[in-house]
Amino acid sequence: MKNAWGNYTAGAFYDELISSPGNARQPAKKLLSHLRSFSEEDLSSRQQLAESTIREMGVSFTVYTEEGNIDRAWPFDIIPRVIGKKQWDKTAAGLEQRLQALNLFINDLYNGQKIIKDGIIPEFVLKQSKNYLKECEGISPPLGVWAHICGTDLVRDGSGDFFVLEDNLRVPSGVSYMLENRSIMKRVLPDIFAEVNIAPVDEYPGKLLETLTALSPRKIKQPSVVVLTPGIFNSAYFEHAFLAQQMGAELVEGSDLIVQDDDCVYMKTISGLEKVDVIYRRIDDEFLDPEVFNKKSVLGVAGLMRAWSKGNVALANAPGAGVADDKVVYAYVPAIIKYYLDQDPIIPNVETFLCYDDKQREYVLANLDKLVVKPANESGGYGMLIGPHSTKKERDEFAGLIKKNPRNYIAQPTLDLSTAPAIVGKGQLGARHIDLRPFVLQGKKSYVTTGGLTRVAMKEGSLVVNSSQGGGSKDTWIVDTEKGSK
Amino acid sequence: MLSKVAERVYWSARYLERIESTARLIHIYDTLLFDLPNSVEISWYNLIVINSLEEEFAERYSVKDERNVVKFMLVDSSSSSITSSLKSLRENVRTTRDVVLEETWEMTNELSMYVEENIKQGIGRKQRHEFLDHIIKSCQQILGLLFGNMTQGAPWLFLCLGRNLERADMATRILDAGASAYYQLKNDDGAVNTRQIILGHVLRSLNADQAYRRIMRSTVNADAVIEFLLENESFPRSIKFCHNTIQAQAKKLPQSKRLVSEMQHLENVLSAINVVELNAALRDHLNRLQICHINIHKTIDETWFSTWD
Q1: CB-CB contact of A60 with A238 (8 Å)
Q2: Where are the beta strands (DSSP E) in A123-224?
Q3: For residue B286, which of A156, A398, A414, B84 sits 20 to 30 Å off, Cα-Cα?
Q4: Is the pLDDT of residue A451 over 50?
């Protein structure tokens, strides 16, 4: 029997499961001793089982470059990623802290802008932010919260510490895959769950519903909550349908809704119009309301902004929340936490160079081959330059872009992202870089998912984890090593 | 319930039913042709005629042989093949996952994957039986799941409307096919026997042979078969049963006055007509029924689905 673990090494990188070849980290000890009993054939057949399970469960996503194919099977690796509970609890507190501060920040931006008057953030950063919406000025949404659902990307560097890489406050996706990964795992490696004390993840839909319900303008027992999707061609349609189903909410498209003369939102049902209280919208701001934003949008609902600004319907996330998603704003988050909460950030930022600053830009341009350059307002890993993996031509192109529009670019050092073993080829193991996207809710109460979605760069040496660009995923375990096994 | 979701649920039921009856039809045809004497000229092409697909078939094929017909019904036809119905079923289930049961989506995926991987078995003759059998059973599994577990609210009622309308329509088509084959026979020595065989297969296509024997307590003869399939009130694939169900379920839905009175009118008209012979009059009658079914669909659509357009 050939065993795949004998040769596994992560080289110089911080590995999530082993501290040195042959030695498991404390939270992963039981997992590894269990997996060591697997032959290469066992690993390979479990991996195949996972893949056929995914097709049966219909867990899919869409890649926009593959026209017409809306059924790409969700990529999944069966070796879980393990984090100790103690470290996780601290990280979760840091995520809640961050989202609280960001919500105070957004609310301030649209109501008085004290933070700018106090000189913490330069005014032009805000003025030039693509996601700042003038239409939102003076509005105070329920509970003062703008971003109710946040997907924060975390990475570990060589030392094993967590850093925040970016905040996604617009329409972050991935949480359904986090939940599905767990159910796939239970089917593929059922025996392991009896041995290890793994924290469950399935609370999320209930917490999300609670968060949304609390926003209802009508204080009734069962407010009508809907999930607004752009439709089946959206890359995250699977998730929209999944969450609606899990919450027992209606899944609607823009054409199912209408804003009447009373500035309330209704949905078109078989028994007539029915009032809608809360919309969990998975459509970008720009397409939300053709009356106000993109006139050609057929995804949105005409009059939605009117209804929202009058407080007749709640939108989660609120329009304009994306202003804090800006990667230039990101650089200021530690200052934002200090300013509003008078606390030090629990999770640090990754060092970030702002290209609008002359000195920092000079440094960036001189070190393009070492840095990762990101546009301030893109998501999904599009439009990035990864210095060490780039060609001279690409670097020249980015140098031009940065000089033309310095406000729109930031740069960060190339991180030694942590690795975890992944199945590569037939039952072989290889170290692959990973990140982590936990989901944070803020309404009446705050909530952080137990772990989150671990994304894997499946190509050797690659740092790109986005599923739209060939990334994979793993189940994420928060393991309590202080409690015994079940 | 959202109008659009109601529409999709309704179509899910129709497609699910269509997949099963198409599989059943091909399956029954296989055994029918085995049983008939060589002198009888009933061809596979009848399958195309039953489903009113002559034009679409002609665009693809000139030879009306078994392989082409079966391939057309399994894969090629864009409106009626098992593959295309399955695709439509899957799209409708995908977009109604929040109201139909979670397992429906999984079972639909399983069935899609099975058909995709084994379609060759269906086209060839050797394993066709197993292939079709698997499809029929999978459809029944989904139906059973819904029957046993679904909350009896609006989504359920729309599933019932879709299923029963599709069933009633399929029954008219199969009966029509039987009548046409029955009358193509020359009145020679073997005709009596062959007619028996045809009627037996008409019943089997609708999974009605067992129920027929128990309820009608008679040998298979034309009058009784027609009566059973048109009029019986307890057999779930008889036209009368389907109509009654549509009427009863519609009553539980909001704004259903128009459909209920239309169904009531249809019932009155039908009860005054007495069709007992497999002749041209029966075929006219079936034709009129098909037109009624189109109108029932129109009423359903206008009442609940497209009111907002």
Answers
A1: yes
A2: 149-156, 162-168
A3: B84
A4: yes
Instruction: Provide residues of B within 8 Å CB-CB of chain A.
Output: 1-6, 91, 94-95, 97-98, 102, 105-106, 108-110, 113, 154, 253-255, 304, 307-308
3-state secondary structure of A442: strand
How far is A168 from B53, CA to CA, in rounded Å? 52
Domains and CATH numbers, chain A: 352-414 (3.30.1490.270)
Q: Who wins on pLDDT, A302 or B191?
A: A302
Is residue A440 within 8 Å of residue A147, measured between CB atoms?
A: no
Chain A residues with CB under 8 Å of B95 CB are: 232, 241, 251
Residues of A with CB under 8 A from a CB of B: 55-58, 232, 241-242, 244-245, 248-253, 255-256, 258, 267-272
Nearest to residue A167, comparing CAs of A349, A352, A430?
Answer: A349
Over the stretch A180-189, which tens digit does the pLDDT of each residue have?
999 999 999 9
Determine the 3-state secondary structure of A75 from DSSP.
Answer: coil
> Which residues have CB under 8 Å from B283's CB, separation 6+?
B176, B179, B180
**Cα dihedral sign for A230, A236, A241, A243?**
negative
Query: Which residues contact residue A440 at a Cβ distance below 8 angstroms, ignoring those fewer than 6 apart?
Result: A95, A96, A98, A99, A149, A150, A151, A152, A446, A447, A448, A449
Q: Is A17 helix (H, G, I), strand (E, B) or coil?
A: coil
**What is the reported pLDDT for A67?**
63
Helix (H, G, I), strand (E, B), or coil: what is residue A136?
A: helix
Over range A39-47, report the average pLDDT.
92
- Please give the Cα distance from B301 to B309 (Å, whole number): 11
pLDDT for residue B275: 67
Bridge partners of residue A439, in order along the sequence: A151
The whole-number pLDDT of residue A351 equals: 94
Please name the member of A56, A245, A258 whose beta carbon is closest to the beta carbon of B98: A245
Q: Are strands A272-275 and A265-269 parallel, antiparallel or unpaired?
A: antiparallel
Judged against a pLDDT cut of 50, whether residue A1 lies above it is answered with no
Percent of chain B with pLDDT over 70: 98
Do A245 and B113 lie within an 8 Å CB cutoff? no
Dist. CA B106–CA A351, nearest whole Å: 45
ipTM here: 0.84
DSSP code string of chain B: -BHHHHHHHHHHHHHHHHHHHHHHHHHHHHHHHHHS-TT----THHHHHHTT-HHHHHHH-S---HHHHHHIIIII-TTTSHHHHHHHHHHHHHTTTTTS-HHHHHHHHHHHHHHHHHHHHHHSSTTHHHHHHHHHHHHHHHHHHHHHH--SSHHHHHHHHHHHHHHHHHHHHHHHHHHHHHHHS-SSTTHHHHHHHHHHHHHHHTT-HHHHHHHH-S---HHHHHHHHHH-SSSTTSHHHHHHHHHHHHHTSTT-HHHHHHHHHHHHHHHH----SSSHHHHHHHHHHHHHHHHHHHHHIIIIISTT-
HSE-CB of B284 using CA atoms within 13 angstroms = 8
Q: Which two tokens stand for residue A171?
A: 């329409």
Tell me what pLDDT residue A484 has: 56
Closest to A75 (Cα-Cα) out of A432, A327, A405, A448: A432
Distances (CA, A) of A189 to A203, A369, A458, A476: 21, 42, 21, 14
Which stretches of A312-391 are DSSP H helices? 327-341, 358-366
Domain residue limits, chain B: 3-305
Name every chain A residue with its beta carbon within 8 A of the beta carbon of B3: 256, 268-270
Contact between residue A263 and residue A306 where contact means Cβ atoms under 8 Å apart: yes
pLDDT at A65 (0 to 100) = 65
Q: Does pLDDT of B291 surpass 70?
A: yes
Write the pLDDT tens digit of every residue in A374-398: 988 776 667 889 898 899 999 999 9
pLDDT at B73 over 80: yes
